[in-house]
Design goal:
It contains 17 helices and no strands. It is mainly α and 440 residues long. It has a single domain, classed as MFS general substrate transporter like domains (Growth Hormone, Chain: A, Up-down Bundle), CATH 1.20.1250. The radius of gyration is 22 Å and the shape is globular.
Length: 440
C-alpha cells in the first residue's frame, strides 16, 4: 500500500520508508518481552492478546485523521503485538507435537506468513484503489482482531507451567538427531521436578513455575542464550538467509520494472508467485525433515540454502541478460518459474530454524525464540537498504544478486557447522549426557 499512502499524505521517499518500517520497529522492541510473557501467561493468552492488540492499534491508525506523527506512533505500537504469533505460536508447536512431527507442524505454522503476504498482495491494493489505503488497512486490522478472538476461543486453555507435552517416542530412521534422540533431548531439557504422565501433560505446575523462576531475569537469560553455541549458530544461519529473503521480496518487483520494463502491476503479481513458492517450501522442507531425514533439521535447511543460492545465481544471469524496452522475451518468461524457485528455497527454511531454536533451548524455548528473533529482525531491517545501496553504487542489479549468492554460500557453510554440532549433541544424549541448553 506504500504508493497509496505516499500519494495521500504527500510523503517523501524517506517519510514513506519510516511508515513502512514503523510496524517492524515495534515488533523488534518486543520479541524478547513476548517470550518472557509467554512463559508467564501461556501460549493461548499471548497469541490472542497480541493479535487483538495489533489489530486494534492498526484500526486506530486507519481511522485517525491526524498527521504523519500520529500514524507512525500508532503503527509502532501496533507492531508490538506481532511477535506473539511468532514466539508463542512456535513455542506452542513444540509443546503439542512430538519430534517426528514437528518439522511439518512448524512448516504449516510458518507457512502462514507467506500465505498472509500472498493474501495481502492480492487483496489490499484493490481495496486501496477502490476505497483508499485507510479502508484497506482497516480491513486487515479487522481480520487480525478476528484471528485473535478465534485463537482465544479455539486453542487449548493452557496454563503457565502445564503446557501439554507429547510423548517423545520418535521412530525416525535417519542418522544423527532422530525422533527418539530428540525425545531424549526434550526429556533432558525438562526442568527438574517436572515429569510427564500417561496423558502427556506436565503434572507439577508448581515445580515448573519454580524452574522458570530460577531463570533470574531478562539479562541473566540473555547471557545464558549467548553462551549456547547451537543457539548462536542457528541464529547466525537465519540472519544470513533472511538477508537474502527480505532483499528478494523487497526488490524483485523493482528489478523487473528496471531491468525488464515490466509494469508495476505485473511486477507486483510476480511477488505473489514468490509467496506461493514460500508457502510450499515451508511445508515441503518441514515434511522432508520429519519423513526423509529422520528428524534432522540441518540437512533439509542446507537443501533450501543450496536451492536459494542457485536461484540467486540465476537472478545474476537475468540481470546481465535483461534489457529494458528492447526485451529478452525468453529470459522474461523464465522469471515466473524462477520466482517460484526462489520463494520455495529462500523463504522455505524458516520453519526449520524456529524448530532448531525451540528444540535446543529446553524449558527456556519461549525467551530463546524471542531473543533469536530479535537479532534476526535487525538483519531483516538492514538487508533491504544495503541491497539498494549496492545497486546504486554498482549501477547494476547483478552486483546485488551476486552478494545474495555469497550470503547463501555463507549460510551453507554455517549450516554444515550446525549439522556437526547437532549430530554431536545427539550422540551425547544417546550416552546420557545432559545438554547445556536445558540446564538452569
Amino acid at each position: 500500500m506504500a504508493p497509496f499512502i505516499r500519494a495521500d499524505l504527500d510523503l517523501s521517499l524517506t517519510a514513506t520508508g519510516l511508515v513502512l518500517g514503523a510496524f517492524d520497529l515495534g515488533a523488534l522492541a518486543t520479541f524478547y518481552l513476548t517470550g518472557r510473557l509467554t512463559d508467564r501467561y501461556g501460549d493461548r493468552r499471548i497469541m490472542a492478546a497480541g493479535a487483538v492488540l495489533a489489530g486494534l492499534l492498526s484500526l486506530a491508525a486507519a481511522l485517525d485523521g491526524a498527521g504523519l506523527g500520529m500514524l507512525l506512533g500508532l503503527l509502532v505500537m501496533a507492531g508490538t503485538g506481532f511477535p506473539s504469533s511468532q514466539v508463542a505460536g512456535s513455542h506452542a508447536v513444540i509443546g503439542w507435537f512430538p519430534p517426528r512431527e514437528r518439522g511439518l507442524a512448524m512448516g504449516i505454522r510458518q507457512a502462514g506468513l507467506p500465505a498472509g503476504g500472498f493474501a495481502a498482495a492480492w487483496l489490499l491494493p484493490g481495496l486501496a484503489s477502490a476505497w483508499g489505503w485507510r479502508a484497506a488497512l482497516a480491513g486487515a486490522a479487522v481480520a487480525c482482531i478476528a484471528s485473535g478472538v478465534l485463537v482465544g476461543l479455539v486453542l487449548p486453555r493452557d496454563e503457565p507451567g502445564s503446557v501439554p507435552r507429547p510423548r517423545e517416542t520418535g521412530t525416525g530412521t535417519g542418522s544423527g538427531q532422530r525422533g527418539g534422540v530428540a525425545g531424549a533431548h526434550s526429556a533432558a531439557c525438562r526442568p527438574a521436578g517436572v515429569h510427564g504422565g500417561r496423558s502427556g501433560r506436565v503434572q507439577d505446575p508448581r515445580a515448573a513455575r519454580a524452574a522458570r523462576g530460577r531463570d533470574a531475569g531478562a539479562l541473566a537469560v540473555a547471557g545464558w542464550f549467548f553462551r549456547q553455541p547451537t543457539l548462536v549458530l542457528v541464529t547466525a544461519v537465519a540472519c544470513v538467509l533472511a538477508a537474502v529473503q527480505f532483499s528478494l521480496t523487497g526488490y524483485l518487483p523493482l528489478f523487473m520494472e528496471d531491468v525488464f520494463g515490466w509494469s508495476p502491476d505485473a511486477a507486483g503479481r510476480l511477488l505473489l508467485v514468490v509467496h506461493l513458492g514460500g508457502m510450499l517450501g515451508r511445508l515441503a522442507w518441514g515434511w522432508a525433515s520429519d519423513r526423509l531425514f529422520g528428524g534432522q533439521r540441518a540437512q533439509p535447511m542446507a537443501g533450501a540454502a543450496f536451492g536459494g543460492m542457485l536461484a540467486a545465481a540465476a537472478l545474476v544471469a537475468a540481470a546481465l541478460l535483461g534489457r529494458p524496452g528492447g526485451h529478452s522475451p525468453v529470459v522474461s518468461a523464465a522469471m515466473v518459474p524462477l520466482a517460484a524457485l526462489a520463494g520455495f528455497n529462500c523463504l522455505g527454511w524458516n520453519g526449520l530454524y524456529t524448530t532448531v531454536v525451540a528444540e535446543n533451548a529446553g524449558s527456556r524455548s519461549a525467551p530463546a525464540l524471542g531473543l533469536s528473533m530479535t537479532v534476526l529482525y535487525v538483519f531483516t531491517m538492514l538487508a533491504p537498504p544495503l541491497f539498494g545501496r549496492v545497486v546504486d553504487a554498482a549501477g547494476h542489479y547483478a552486483a546485488a544478486w551476486g552478494l545474495a549468492v555469497l550470503l547463501q554460500l555463507a549460510g551453507l557453510v554455517l549450516i554444515g557447522r550446525l549439522h556437526r554440532r547437532l549430530a554431536g549433541g545427539a550422540e551425547g544424549l544417546a550416552r546420557g549426557i545432559r545438554p547445556l541448553a536445558g540446564s538452569s
